[in-house]
Design goal:
- The chain is an all-beta fold.
- It folds into two domains: 199 residues, no CATH class; 75 residues, no CATH class.
- It is elongated.
Amino acid sequence: MKRTKILGLCLMVACAIAAVSVASASASAQFGSCVGFKHGNFTESNCATVAEKKGAPDHKGTFEFVPADSCYATKGGNFTENKCITVAGKTKKGVFTPDHKGGFESTPSPSFTTSSGPAELTTPGFGAVKCSASTGGGVIESGTTETTTTSFTGCESSGQKCQNTATEGNIVTFLNAGVLTEPTTGTAATVLTAASGKYLAEFGCTGVAVIRTGGSVGGHNTPVNTVSSTSTFTFEKGFDQNLETEFSASPAFEPAETVGPFPSEQHGVFTIKTSSPIETHVA
């Protein structure tokens, strides 16, 4: 197997979902909701402007940012206790009716779908695997975490089809885990790694190699401090590219027939649509 024929691709999405490694990035960016709140920290409904007096926060705003999948105290909430399990309401003639008179409310933990145009992973000295499009989805599980999978179509390397399903050119990633970070002030990014095990994806390219990719990769989340059901997740050249790709003559990845790992980069732009509006909040 010639070195010039060994190609690789890391396949993953975002949703949802970094410009630096997980270990070094700030975790102050959060997914969540900006809600009406007495004595809140913010003055308006996207929680971008801090309520302050003479340059110091005065906690007299009317809005507060609450991370996804949280339970917070509020007047007129849907729940009676601080775990947001028991719905506030009354039972009459055996029929329960919510009355919205509880003291607690929950923020959503929305699911999301993803889609993209062309995406590729390049491995310097080995080439690239390119896919024409993708679809996928996942769940925002907390203020800083998500899980996701992606199905890429039209995948090939050097004109040879790549796949890990029965459909030619189709590659489906393993379950990937994302961590939201704030790499620089006012920006948000998500770092993706394998949710379990070492690899984000494994697949074969006919006549080329069996390929698997591990490590991590980050992408920019935009917009920030805006409540929306649609956002963009972008993998860029040189932007938190910590992927490692291995190539083998067979799926067994025996040491004698495996080369790598080699540094790789993921490139592509993904559109994320959440099941309910959500905000990517940064300081």
